[in-house]
Amino acid sequence: MNRLKRVVLGEQGLVILFLLALVIVSITVPNFMTQRNILGLLQSVVTIGIVACTMMLCLASRDFDLSVGSTVAFSGMIAVMVSNHMENIGLGLLAALLAGVMVGAINGVVIAKLRINALITTLATMQIVRGLALIASDGRAVGVDDPAYFDIAQTALFGIPVPIIVMVLTFLLFGFVLNRTVFGRNTLAIGGNPDASRLAGVNVGTIRIWIFTLQGLACAVAGILLSSRITSGQPNAAQGLELSVISACVLGGVSLAGGRAAISGVLVGVLIMGIAENVMNLMNIQAFYQYVVRGVILLLAVLLDNLRTRATGKRT
C-alpha cells in the first residue's frame, strides 16, 4: 500500500494523471488536438517553461526567486531599447542577456554572502527591477524599429516556431545539468542538507550564486522571446509569472523543502498550467476566472508537495 502511494504521488503517478487528463480534454474539448492549437499551446508556455528550468534548481536548493517576472520584463525592455538606440539587434540581445545575468548575480551574492533571506531579497529585487523597467520606458510600451527583431519569435524550423525549440533545448540542457553533472548533484545535496554539504566540502555559497545567475540568464532569454512575440518591450509584461512558475515546478514534483527535483516532472507541470489556460480559452471562459484557476492549482501543488514529503518520510 505504501509503495502504491509513493508511485501515485511520485513522478510516474503525475505522468499517468497528466496523460489521463490529456485524453479526457482531447475528447471533450473541440479543436484541442489540432496542430494549430497544440503549437499555440506550446507557444503560450514558452516563458513559463524556460524560467521553470532554472526555478527548479532554485527550489531544489531550498531557495525562492520572486523576481523572475520583473527580470523577464526588464530584459525584454533592454533588448528592444538597445536594439533601437544602437540600430543593432545583436547588441540589444547581448545587453538583455547581461542585464538578466546581472540581476541574477546580485540576487545570488546578497543571499549567499550577505545571508539575507531569499524570499525578502527577491521580493525587493522584484520591485526594484520592475521600477527600473517603468522608469526607463516612462511607463509605456516601447515599439521595435527594426522588423527583423520579430523574426526571433516568428521564424520556424521544420514547421516548429523557434521559441518552442529554444524551450525544448532548455529542458534538455537543464535536465542534463541536474542529472549528469556535479553541479546538479551538489544542488540537490544543498537542498537536502546545507550544513552536511558544507562539511563535505561543497562550496554552498558559490553554487547558490551560480543558481541565481543562471536564473537571471534564463529570464533574459525568456524576455527576449516574449518581447519579439508581442512585438514590443512592455514594462508590465510577465506580471504574476513567478507564481505560475513556482506552481508548475511544485506540481511537477520539485520539493519546497529542497533536495528533490525532476526535469520531466517540471515539464509535465508546465504543460498542465498551459492546458488549463488553453482549455478555458477554447471554451470561451472569461479571463477573470483564470486567476481563480491559477490559485487553485497553486494550492493543489502545495498540497501534493506535502503529501509527497509525508510519503517519502522527509521532515521539513
TrEMBL record:
Family matches, as InterPro entries: ABC_transp_permease
Compartments (UniProt record): Cell membrane
Q: What are the entry keywords? A: Cell membrane, Membrane, Transmembrane, Transmembrane helix
User: Could you name the domain of life of the organism this protein comes from?
Assistant: Bacteria
Signal sequence interval, chain numbering: none
List the transmembrane segments: 12-32, 38-59, 66-83, 89-112, 156-178, 207-227, 248-276, 288-307
User: What is the membrane topology noted in the UniProt record heading this document?
Assistant: Multi-pass membrane protein
Give yes or no: UniProt keyword tRNA processing. Answer: no
Does this UniProt record's set of keywords contain Membrane? yes
PANTHER family for this protein: ABC TRANSPORTER PERMEASE PROTEIN YPHD-RELATED-RELATED, L-ARABINOSE TRANSPORT SYSTEM PERMEASE PROTEIN ARAH
Protein name (Swiss-Prot/TrEMBL): L-arabinose ABC transporter permease AraH
